[in-house]
Amino acid sequence: QVQLVxxxxxxxxxxxxxxxxxxxxxxxxxxxxxxxxxxxxxxxxEFVAAITWSSGDTYYPDSVKGRFTNSRDNAxxxxxxxxxxxxxxxxxxxxxxxxxxxxxxNTDYGRRGAYPYWGxxxxxxxxx
Length: 128
Hints:
Elements: E1 3-7, E2 10-12, E3 18-25, E4 32-39, E5 46-52, E6 58-59, E7 68-73, E8 78-83, E9 92-100, H1 105-108, E10 117-118, E11 122-126
Parallel strand pairs: 2-11
Antiparallel strand pairs: 1-3, 3-8, 4-5, 4-9, 5-6, 7-8, 9-10, 9-11
């Protein structure tokens, strides 16, 4: 059974940085991909980043491009989301998600319904 455990959330001031971690277990993930999503109160869950385990290809929406960096440590089965230049609008519960990589990933990496496995989420609050 796939399990995902996030950590690293917290309270930061605008302009600050935070690194989230997501450790996966239960499978061999070499042919998988990981996504990060966030959900703010009263809003839909939105795509934040994605990465493939094998090649490390990354994907971002325009809202975080240049500020967030997704990386992975294959030996630790862990993906990281480095968040810089944080804004109040980044406040949300951040969740990692996992899926088997297929050719469809190249077009639907941002679709939350394409990820069957989810972590419990970690709160990120950006406030002065």
